[in-house]
Design goal:
This protein is an alpha/beta fold. It has one domain: Alpha-Beta Complex (2-enoyl-CoA Hydratase, Chain A, domain 1). It is 43% helix and 11% strand. Helix 1 runs parallel beside helix 3 and helix 2 crosses helix 15. The chain starts with 13 loop residues before the first strand and ends in a 16-residue tail after the last helix. This is Enoyl-CoA hydratase/isomerase family protein. It holds the Pfam family ECH_2.
């Protein structure tokens, strides 16, 4: 069995096991809510590429390690403190992180064998990136899904421009701009999850996957499906009619004005949320989701790779909205980002447009070979 598990480099942050025909991958950085490091991305890629070519492995399961006595997390995103340090230091590993992460996202979407994502607890940002391409996305009542990147002056990447654009109506714009956290019922209703297994069933499910008889991919899938239950109904606070009325408008300014004029608690709360975000990056996120509706996943990831380069480099790291957003949230923790510009009315349309100009010629793009 040893040759089924190739050498890994993340010093235990990724754990790999094989049970019968099933390859199991555990994100094992629980103290950081299993946030992805570059080494973890490389190990995930190594395992998936290796197992794709091994006939003994017929299916793969992804899960997150738990923390004793604390709420679970599948994966809370990428290592944003690393982003901050690497951007200010001019470390080329920052570019490597996003290139390799987006390649991994594409690999999972195109994976030739059933991939099961056990999305227990927090599933945000990079955690959505490695779960949304899975063939079977399993949720429970503890699942909390979000693309919260605008909160740090970024945009919903890791394929977010593609999978959020597939949500019905204008749910994708709402999730992209606000970073709203949604539960299992909403996620399944809007195409961001597949099945619901009650939390009380998860210990036996994981025990079955790890140690039960798993001779074929069909048996693996059956281990999940025999425990599937009805998901709780979607939360009425975010019904599509509310979302579509506001987030179908053409600009961020129009969305904000519509929310401000609405005499309802949901709209007022949403308006307050958007006022805390970077105006520039709200405009970038809105444009990304709308372009995403006509893009393939590969083209979306190529677009996002250019956007994330500009997020750190268009103004220089010292003036980057993303560097400032991470500083405020995770470094100084003052939760008082200084956005430039600070108001929606002052958005520079030319600068927003510049985000969508690729920094590379097509034949030089780091993701040029994705299909």
């Amino acid at each position: 069995m040893n040759d089924l598990i190739p050498p890994l480099v993340s010093d235990g942050q990724i754990q790999a096991d094989v049970n019968g025909c099933l390859g199991l991958i555990t994100l094992n950085r629980p103290q950081a809510l299993n946030a992805l490091s570059l080494a973890m991305i490389r190990d995930l890629t190594t395992l998936l590429v290796h197992w794709a070519g091994r006939p003994e492995i017929q299916a793969v399961a992804l899960m997150g390690a738990g923390r004793e006595g604390k709420a679970p997390a599948f994966c809370a995103g990428g290592d944003i403190r690393f982003f901050h340090q690497a951007a200010l230091a001019g470390d080329p590993a920052l570019g490597d992180f996003f290139t390799e992460e987006y390649r991994l996202n594409h690999l999972i979407h195109a994976y030739p064998k059933p991939c099961i994502a056990l999305m227990d607890g927090i599933v945000m940002g990079g955690g959505m990136g490695i779960s949304q391409g899975a063939k079977l996305r399993v949720l429970c009542e503890r699942s909390q899904l979000a693309m919260p990147e605008t909160g740090i002056g970024l945009f919903p990447d890791v394929g977010g421009g593609f999978f959020l654009a597939q949500c019905p109506g204008h749910i994708g714009e709402w999730l992209a701009l606000t970073g709203e956290v949604i539960a299992a019922g909403d996620a399944i209703e809007w195409g961001l999850g597949d099945v619901f297994v009650r939390a009380e069933q998860w210990p036996s499910l994981i025990e079955d996957l790890r140690h039960g008889h798993q001779p074929t991919a069909e048996h693996v899938v059956a281990s999940v499906m025999e425990r599937v239950d009805l998901a709780p109904p979607p939360d009425p606070k975010a019904i599509a009619a509310h979302v579509d009325r506001h987030f179908g408008l053409p600009t961020v300014a129009a969305i904000l004005a519509s929310l401000a004029d609405a005499n309802e608690e949901w709209a007022q709360r949403t308006h307050e949320t958007l006022l805390k975000r970077s105006p520039t990056m709200l405009a970038v996120a809105l444009e990304l989701v709308r372009r995403g509706r006509s893009l393939s996943l590969a083209d979306d990831l190529r677009l996002e790779r250019g956007l994330v380069h500009h997020a750190f480099h268009l103004r220089g790291a010292a003036r980057s909205e993303t560097v400032e957003g991470i500083r405020a949230l995770a470094v100084d923790k003052d939760h008082a980002p200084r956005w430039h510009p600070a108001s929606i009315a002052a958005i520079d349309a030319a600068e927003v447009a510049a985000f969508f100009v690729s920094p590379w010629a097509p034949d030089q793009h780091p993701l040029r070979d994705l299909t």
